[in-house]
């Protein structure tokens, strides 16, 4: 999907209070940008990293700037988690994910005690797809999730296992935003419970898909599938 334009270059001064980031622009001025990401953003929210921000002229907004991309290791990383589902939805509707071609797509489906990101329907079959944004690497060229303990993520895995038992096709989809990544694994050292649940989910028939995105200053698109390492 296309990113807001034009994006304004700068450098990260600091990220704080979860949703705020100070950014130094090219003219030396420092602005405070909204940061739409609830995770730790470790490896990304590093002072001095190049960033791209967007600017809104909406007078009702408290903050006029939004942090859009951060450069890590020579690649742009999309830390804007509100955009993640839209990137995946565009790929689903455009049949860009080979394992999920030809399904009718409905976002935000209530199931159990959660809202699962997508309900897919085809003929008499139904599938639930939960999407996670991946911005961390745990070792060279291996992306991992989560970047902090995630009770919400654990709950989603329980719901997907329940859905599988109820006859749904169930998929956990990791959108890997790190351009150097060549594989994906759970971040066991950060959230060992999540890693255990992910392995349990696979054993119970939940499909694990990891796709790397292709991020530039102009767009973010689902690109290539990555192997999932669970051993």
**Per CATH, which architecture of the largest domain?**
3-Layer(aba) Sandwich
Number of helices: 3
What is the general shape?
Answer: globular
What count of domains describes the coordinates? 2
Strand content: 35-45%
Describe the structure.
The chain is of the alpha+beta class and 231 residues long. It folds into 2 domains: 8-78, OB fold (Dihydrolipoamide Acetyltransferase, E2P) (Beta Barrel); 81-226, Trna Endonuclease, Chain: A, domain 1 (3-Layer(aba) Sandwich), CATH 3.40.1350.60. Helix content is 17%, strand content 44%. The protein has helices spanning 81-93, 151-165, 192-203; strands at 8-16, 20-25, 30-34, 50-55, 65-72, 75-78, 104-111, 114-122, 125-134, 136-139, 142-145, 169-176, 183-186, 207-215, 220-226. The protein has a 6-stranded mixed beta sheet. Strand 14 and strand 15 form a beta hairpin. Helix 2 packs parallel to helix 3. The longest helix has 15 residues, at 151-165.
